[in-house]
Each structure stands twice: as C-alpha cells, then as structure tokens.
## 1
Amino acid sequence: MQYRVPPYFDFLIERFHRGVVSRFVHLGHWDQAPPLDPDEPPRLQEIERAVERLTQVLVDMADLHDAQRVLDVGCGFGGTLQHINQRFGNMWLVGINIDPRQLEICRQLDPLNHNELRWVGADACHLPFPDCSLDRILCVEAMFHFASRRTFFREVARVLQPGGALVASDIVLTESAKQVDVPRFCIEAPLRDGYGPWPDFWGEDADYRELGSAAGLSCTSLLDATLHTRPTHRFMVPHDAEAQPDPGDPLLRAAMMLKWLHDKDHLQYVYMRFDKPKSNDGNAAASALLPAEDK
C-alpha cells in the first residue's frame, strides 16, 4: 500500500539540504512565551532552542536510561534520536518513517556512546517488531497523520515490554472548532492540502485515555502544551506574510490556518505518556529478533 507523505516535507527537505532548517521538524516549546514584537522577525536561534526544548521535555517524560531499546515513530530527519544518541549509551535506537527521503537524511547520523542506530521504512499502524520487544516508544507530532490512532495504540501495546512506555505529542482540534460559524471545509481544505494526510481531522477518535485503556495501557500523564507551543507560529507565519499573503502558496495557507486555529484556542497541543503494566514473566522477549535497517 502506498502512503502519501505530507506535502510540507517537500519544502522542509529542500531547506534541510540548503542548511536552513535543523533535524527537528516539530513545533517548539517555550516555558515562558517570548515578548511579541510584530515589527521584529523571529530569530532562527530562538526557534532552534524551542524545538530542542520540546524534544527534551518529551525525553524527560520518557525517563530514559542507558541500554534501552527505543523506537521513534515518524522519525522525521532523526532529530529526536540524535538528541538521545548524544546523551545516552548502549542504546538500541530505531526510527521508522514511510518516506525514503527522510530516512536517507537520518542515515547521515553516526552512532555514539556504543549505541546502535537503525532506520526502517514502515507504517505506524503496522509496526515491524516482535511482541514485547521495546522499552520506550516516542512519537513526536506525527500521530495526527496516521490512518488510525486506535490501531497505532494497539500496535504500541503489542510491541512494548511490560513496564515499557509510550511518550507522544499530538495535535487535535478542540470542540470549539466544530462550532465556528464558517463551513467546515474552509478550515479543513487548506490544512489537508498543506499538512495532510489528516484522516481523523475533527478528532472523532482522539480520546487519548480511552484509546490507551482499550489497548491495555495506563495514561500516567496528559498535559495541555498549547500555550507552550503557540509562539512557534511567529516563525512559521512571519508578520509580513499575514499582511500580504500569497494565495497561490498552499503551504502558507495551511500554516496561516494552523496559526489562526491555535490563536483562537480551536487547536490543542498535547503531551502524553502511557505505561504498559509490569509482568511477572520477566523480559525474555527483549532478545527477540528485531528488523534490520532498510538499505
């Protein structure tokens, strides 16, 4: 089955090869919102610090330790695993993605600290790993692209070891977005054009606690990070672009719609952790054969 890569990655890949963007392809996290000066463009260093800060927040939630087996689902350009690779040792680190171009960028990274790095072409709803084979699963700002959050949660529960954990961030439209007095397609169309696939656009199946419970996972943390991530749009949609938008640019239209939804509190950005119950059966499955890197 062929899956569509979100169109904004064409733009990001081109800019990565030109050295304009880093390996992080998600929003940033600010502990305190920076002062808003509409006349001053955002600084690249500011956004780079913020996107790495978001990565660190999720890594802290995951409570990583040396010698663990860690999967990053929807690994982008490898920024999250690079962050872990630099800070931990004797780790088995694997990233999966449906886009060969992104995996090729990831393969530029070298393992450090006696870690092993692998990059595998795979679908989040069909994880190519044995049961009970992973200690931690990370999924940073990718879940809304998946064909089914529910299927993804089931797959996570299957491949996690007892005592393992999923840590993720996700974007979901709030109930208030459904009450906006404009046709739904006016909101949906630009985001699908620029950021799709977005199968469950209106979050009909995005009750995270229920999804985790149905898969046998316990929700141990569910945090609203909307205010912490909102300043990212100062970088994504510069002030001059809002004043004179280019109607022929689908990526700009999508970014402006996302910013509008975020500013109007119609969009929620969530950090979450789910734990798989511990078992008395030990960790024998941890040595099961895991997939080799795609060549």
Note: The mean pLDDT is 90.
## 2
Amino acid sequence: MRWWTAAIETSNLAWPTEETTVIYNGQQFLLRPETDDLLPSVSIHCPNNIPQEEAQLSINRFLSALCWTKKGGVHVQFWSGSGGINPVNVGKSKVKFVCDKLSTDYLPEPGNEKSNRALAIYREAMSVNTIPYKFLAFFKVINIIYDKGPNQRVWINKNVNRVKDFQAVKRLEEIKKTVTDLGEYLYKSGRCAVAHAFDHPTVDPDIPAETLRLKKDLPVIQELATILIESELGITTESTFRREHLYELQGFAELIGPEKVKKIKAAEPIDEDLVALFPKISVRLREHEPFVAYECMIVKYVKQNGSTLSLVLESQDGFCMLELQLNFSNWRLLFDSEKWVRIKEDNDKSVVPIRYCIDQIKFLQGHLTNGQVEVYDSSTNKLLARTDPLIPCNINLRASIKHLDKLIENYEQVIIERQKATHEASILNQKEDDR
C-alpha cells in the first residue's frame, strides 16, 4: 500500500482542526489540519499498483465536490507520495523571497491605458495560483493587441523564434517534435482549452496530465507575453534596462545636450569649453553615507579623448582631486577609486587631508565590495549617473579589506598626533603672548 498526499491551500473553506476521515465515492480520504509547521493536507491510501495519476485524480475529484458543497476554494500546492503506516507530513516552506532593501532603479511608467492594462494582466498572471488560469492570463496579454484568433496565431508564429528563456526553449523543442503550427497549438490546446468548457479541446483541472501539460507550456506563453509587452507596447523589461545601462550617463547627457553627445560618440572634437555646463558634483557610493572629501566638488577642466570625456574634479578647499571618465561610445561611467584620486598634503600639517585619505580608503573598501558609484548634482541632489556593482577580479578581497583597515588605523593615529601637536603649539603661543 502507498499513500498519496496533496498539500493544500484553502480559500473561504473551513478545514478541520483535527484529523478527519471522509468516505467519498467508495474511497477513504484522510484530512489533516494545519499546524505552525505543517500545511493542511488530504491523503488517500492506495494499492501499489494504482498509478500516481489515478490517485491524484481521486483526490482532485473529492476536493472539487467539497468546494461545490461548502462554497469555498482549495488549491493543491504540491503532491507527495510515501509508504509506511501513516502519510508523510507536508511541511511549510521555509523559503521566503526577501531583500535587505528593495531595488527600484527601474519601474516603467507607461502613460497610456492599453499599456497599463497589459501590466495589470501580467501582474494577475504572475499572482494567480492555478495553472490553467495562469496560462489564460498570459495569453490575454496577446489579446490586448490582437483581438482575433487568427491574428494571435500569426503573431505567435512570427515571434516564437525570439523566445530566449531556457525552460521555454526546451519546451518548444519538445512541442516541435509533434506539432508543426505552434501558434495553432498554443491557441487551441492552451487558450481555447482553458477558456471553453463545451467541447474538445478543453482542460479538466482535476486531470493531472492536462494541468501538467499546461504547466510545461507556461514558460513559453509567459515569454511570449513579455515579448509582446516590450516590442509592441514599448515597455522595457528590467533585463533590457540593465543591458542597455542608459542610466550610467543619462544625467550627464542631458547636461551636455543631444547634439554635443552625438559628436562625442562619433569622436568628433568639441571646440568649446565644456566646464560651464557642469554644476558642482558629489561622488558617492550607493547606500553609504556621503564622503566629505567627494562632496560639492568643482569641475576644474574637461578633456576630450575621442568618444570619452574626462572630468577632473576638485574639492573646494583644494585638497582632493579626482577624475571621472564619461565613455559615450559604450555609454559607461568609469571611476578608479584607488588610482584616480589624489590628496594633497597640507604644509600646515592640518588634519583635513588625513581625513580625506580616510574617506578615500573607506570609499575604496565599499567600492571593492560590489559598490555602485553614484554621481549627483550637489545643488539639486539629482542623480546624474551611476555604475553597476563592481566585481573585483584577481585580488584577495579579504586580505585587501584587512590591509585597508590597517591603513585607516594608521591615518587615525596621525590625526591624533597632529591634533596633539596643534594643541601643544597653541599652549606655547599662548605662553609667549602672556610674556
């Protein structure tokens, strides 16, 4: 004998808080309650020669009858089989999708009703927890542009070669072994089979083989819905947004102007002085406090080298200088936080340059640990440019960070010594004045 168990999620359906046995259609079903660690479940005890699909169908038929009677909903989260005297416990998943901080670098703002509707339907498709209706919701995205079945089938066949998702490509290869018209297959055996219930083809949600087929087809229709939203409605995906990395120089491009940017990209020399175009600039690291040395810096001069502009920045007290490179041919912001920074010594031996040295080292530490450089207009705090996270190569990161920590300790000791020397000099000067 073998147990087959469905871990379930209920909606507006009361589930027993004690183990309950129910006889339905000549079979015995064991209902077990939800606990802090376990999901609610329903199990059936079958002879070993009963196929898995047949056992699952029996449980599905029982749940469908129960939902009809009690006017509630049940969704099977997953299936489990086991031997032994009792069915296996089905634990709650410990996996949760969380993040320290939500990255919202890119959120589309469509600005028209049709595009907003497409994103709404896409959200519904991503959120619905039944496979047939998830498939149908993704197919509805195509229906936003193409209202008739023949047009939908034609569009699918024209665009199916643009599918890149690994699972979708793998599934398409399987389908092509028996199907010549992919648009016809996805329309009739997918969209119509779910939307219609009168005649074949149709999908019976209780039959495991039918929902399994749709589950395999889901990556294909989801990828096609994504392609339509991006290509037909012009809503960029996050992967395209990051691949094009327009954010790296967009703010600087706006300051310089489209005509000059076009010339720079073509490596045509710009005769005029560009310094006046730039405001005071702050160079920061994402999710780090500002570094005093790199705040409100003045653009001292701008040098063009082919399609790259080099901006030399200087702190207002003149102790810190750094270089940013704007590579317009590749649309990249470049900054070497170790080599492109210079701190001047103070003849009066003040602590300011030493504090700037500490800022440089702390910036370098943050940069090496996947830091993202951000460049702001200091007066408006508008983000002008930012890089992708740095991925350091060919270094011992742990040893490097430890070495930099030691340098910071040394600089902090220098500050103490200089402050002590300044204090002692002040006392001597005061004694001289008293004489």
Note: Residues 113-240 form one domain.
## 3
Amino acid sequence: MNKIKMVIPKGRMYNNVIKLINDSGIIIEINDRQYIPQIKDHEIEAKVMKPKNIAQVIELGSYDIGFMGYDWMYEMDSKAVEVMDLKLDPVKIVAAVPSDLKEKELKNKKITVASEYEKISRMYLEKNNYDYLLIRTYGATEAFPPQDADMIIDNMATGQTLRDHNLKVISEIMDSSTRFIANKSSLKNNWKKKKIEELQMLFTAVLNARGRVMLEMNVPPDKLKQIVDILPCMRSPTVSTLYKEMGYAVKVAVKKEELVRLIPLLKRIGATDLLEYELKKVII
C-alpha cells in the first residue's frame, strides 16, 4: 500500500494542528506521552516531533509532509515547499526592551540581545545599525532582561508574557503562522502529490467552515427579492417553495461576523423561523 509520512509539531502548535487534522476526518488517537499516533487513514503514517527538527527531516525526505511555523522556516532557511498558510497560531516576531529603557540609549552602547532566532536577530540588528552581542537562548527568553540582556527578539501572541516581565515592544519584525509544508521530491511523485492536494482541499474546507455558519429562514413571497438582494452568500442562496406555496425557504452560508448586522435586518424585513447552525466543511 502507498503511504505518506506526516510529522506533527510538538508544543505551541500541537493542539490546533491535531484539531485541524481530526476536523478534516483524519481521526488521530494519541495521548500527550506518545510520539507515534494511530491514524484511521491507513495511507498516512505520523510522528510527533519538536518544530525545529521538522524542516530538516522533511528536507531530507524522511517525511513527506508536516506543519511548521513560518518563523522557523525562515530562520532555518528551509527548502521545504509551503503548500498553504493555515493561519493557525499567529504570532509576531518582535524586538522588546525593559519598559523604563529609552530607545535612544540602545544606540549609544554595545547591547546584549537574547533570542532563539539567530538569523532573524542578526538581520534586524544589522539593518538597524546596532552594535550588539547576541546570546542564543533555548526557551524563557523573556527572563533575560534587564540583568542579562538589554533587548530580546522573540515571538509574541498577545503580548501578555512581555508585559508580565515589564518589557515593551519597540519593533515588529515579522508575522508568522502555521504552514502546511511538503518535501519537494514528494510533490514529484504522482500518488503523493495527489494525496497532498486532497489533504490541502480538506484543510481548506475545514478552515473555510470555521469562519461561516449556515443560515436558514422562511420568507414571504413579496419579500423574497428584497431579502435575496441583501444576503452576502458565497455564490447565490438556495431557495425552495414552502408547502402550499405559502412562501419560500431560503438557505445561505454567511460569515460569522456578518450575523450581528444581518439577523436583525432580516427580521425587520419579514424573515421568520431563522435557524443558525455550524458547518463542518465548506468546499468552494
């Protein structure tokens, strides 16, 4: 049987990647102590690994596909192919300093910078003409200032961790999110390429569904055109005649953020029996 080998990132991205895979119908059975999950799709084998190792094992061809943050793809100059941006676990790579430090002070001396990101840090520091000494960290970078570093370069989701350590952001260097990636040679294999494209379609369908809901309503005959004209649907709404031609049933997939405006408006125009429910997949 043909097999495709997948590597799943341990740590920050793990939960959202597992949820995406399972929501796609590729059921994984695993606990947090296992590294070899059981997958119901017999054409897929998987292993859980630290994110920093994923680019290398995919480049070497040990695995065909995986998931990795763009920050580490850039940092490690990854030769893996980005299949799609999943937009999961978005973070910013930022430069941060102690809150009471004036930025101009940084340019008047040789500063100590702590970061896990050597390539990204040197690119930023040299572009901005800093005189610096770089300390490579291995986690807990935010704990270095002020005693052991003047600046850190780290990833930030909400910024709460930086605030808890009395740090302020002075520059946003890069945006990052989880990417679905593949080995170049795997994409040249017809069977593997087809399987990767199928996974991409399923992931896209799940992500599309997360941003939309299905809205159903009954509409009087004289209000149909007015209501259809305001519906922000993907293509066009589904309209069917009610029993004894008492009006119409209208069904449409809409973005979640539009509901707060749309539902009261539909009710005012004359729609009744409105139903809202979640979608599992949306294939456009």
Note: The chain has three domains: 4-88+177-209, 91-176, 212-278.
## 4
Amino acid sequence: MFICTRLLQIGLATVLLASCVASPKTQGKHLGKTEPSSALDALSEPDNRSIIEKSRLAPPAADSAISADMQAYASTLATERNLPLDQVLDILAQAHHNDTVARLIGPTPAGKKVWRSWQTYRDRFVEPTRIRMGVEFYNENQAVLARASQRFGVPASIITAIIGVETLYGRDMGNFRVLDALRTLAFDYPDPNKPERAAMFRNQLSDFITLSLQNKLDAQVKGSYAGAIGLPQFMPGSIMRYAIDGDGDGRIDLQHSTPDAVMSVANFLVEHGWVRDLPVFAPVVLPGDPAALVDGGLTPTLGWPALQQAKARLTRSDAGDAWRTQPLGVIDLAEERRGTVQYRTATPNFFALTQYNRSYFYATAVADLATEINAHVQP
C-alpha cells in the first residue's frame, strides 16, 4: 500500500485504497494509489504532523457555495445512480473547502528532496508499542480473527497488522470531515497537472454521497485528510465494494465494529489476489546483485525457474512447495542516503498487500509487523 529508483514519486496513494489507500508523501511509493489511506498520511513527515495538529483547532473555510461545475456533477450523479437531485445538492451544500487538506495533498515543494529510507519507515510501524498493542488486539479479538482466517485464508496476524499500521488499532482514525476532504480534492485538487487525481476523488465523492443517501454512511463522518474511514481506513469506493457485515447486525460500521473491520480487511485482500496458505515472502537467497530482477511494478512477473537461472537458491529445503508454482517478484527496499538496498522475493500475497496501499515499504512493514505479533502471541 506504497519504489524502485527508476520510478517517480506519485502524489497520492487507500487506499485506502484499499482500493483503500497511501500517503501523498509517504516514503517508498511505487505506482501511486487509487484510493488513499490515512494513518500513514499523518505519520509520513514531521511537517505533515504539524499541519494536522494545527488543523484540529482551525475550522474549514466557510465556503459551501455550489459552483456550476458542482451543479453539473450533481445532475450527472443523480441521473447515473438514480438518486434524488435535491438530496445530492443538499449534501454538496454542506461541504466546505478545507485548506489543510489541499496543503497536505499538494505536491512536494520544488527543490525539496524526500529521501526514501526503508529502515526509517519500518521503525515507525514495527516497534515495541505497536507490537504490544497488536498482541492485545489479537488476543481480544481471537474469535472473529479466527473466523476471518478460516473463511478467507488470511492469517489473523496480517489482518491485525494492517489495522495496526493504518490506525493504531482504531486509536487514530482521522479527524477530518470526510465530506469536506473529498469535496476539496474533487473540485479544488491542488496539482493542476494531475487531472486524473481530481477525477478519482470525484468518483470517491460519488460513492460517499451514494452511501450517505442509502443510509449506509453518516455524511458527517470523520476520517483521514484523503477521505479514508474507520479502523481499516477504507475509502468510500472500498466500503461500497469490499466491506462486509462481520457481526451479523445487518449493517456495516467500520468505525465502531471490530468484526466488520476484520472481515472487511480479509475480504479486500482475497478480492485482490490473496492466496490461502502462501507466505508473503519466498524463502529465497537472491544473487549478489539482483537489481536487474526488480521491475518496480505491482504484479509478480517472475517464476522460480527464472530465479534459479539467475542463481537464486533456497534458504532451507523444508520451506514447502506451494510458492514455487506461483508468480514471484523481486522487490527493493532502499536507503537512498546510504546508497544501499535490501531485496526480497515476494509472492502474490505481498502484491495483494500493495493493493491496500501501493507501496513496497507499506506491504513489507505489514508483513514484518505481523511476524512480530505472531512471535509474541501466546500459543
């Protein structure tokens, strides 16, 4: 969910998103997310944390006028989704431009170099507090985690780690009114050179309005500055397509229902290619200089025979065989200031994680946090 040195940083993640999402300035980006997530947004840079803290005290700009562009958008949305136009307009009239959102999503200032550091990124998420709280979350929710693992084949530790990385197990789900964030990014996107990003956020706003008018989402809900919602930081589009009712109460509530969040995370991963009983990384020792094996993409394109031809070998002979028949990819985790790179061999399950947040750093941090949580859970 997050970069190969041959690729440019891209302004956004989620997302969300998951189909969910990533931070606009998170280190370790690869191909730019379709839906941004928010826990990473808040932690990416000290500058961002300062802006976010100040925003908690400052109300959004009091501009709820509906422009001609917004009126045309509302009319099209109402027609295409069979929604009452007056109710669509009513929700849009409640939306405000948020200057803080625009600043946070905006492009990196010219001349400012963002050094990618895998170790710095990892240290933010694979650290004692998040491990300890992850073990507590795991133990407190064993029943629903076991049910999700049995149904979807996603390990409980992976589900726990995603929720831990995204929102610190629900303790930081974002303090921005999602309607304002999406309205700002849909109609006042701060980088005019990226019209596709504004279009993506208009789609997310459309899904948000649709869910609100279907009484499936509170129009006043708060989330990340990119519009991600709840414990797993799902964007509205992901809520619409992948969220499921995990507690059997007939509704989906990713903010207050841990079972809904747990089952939805597992469902999202399976819908994006998670394979039951497959590790995230293959037990492979790569050749001395594997840089040529990295393509920087989010789809595995190699196989075990090709890696063997490149002089890769197994770390141990008892590692199982399931991964050997799967497509594989070599990923790079850079320390740019030092000029060093760590390489790993990733299975389809790693690339399923990158669909949650399109970042090698993100997916690896989730996998490493899951490993630590597993190591500390009492059998």
Note: Confidence is low (pLDDT under 50) at residues 1-27, 31-47, 49-62.
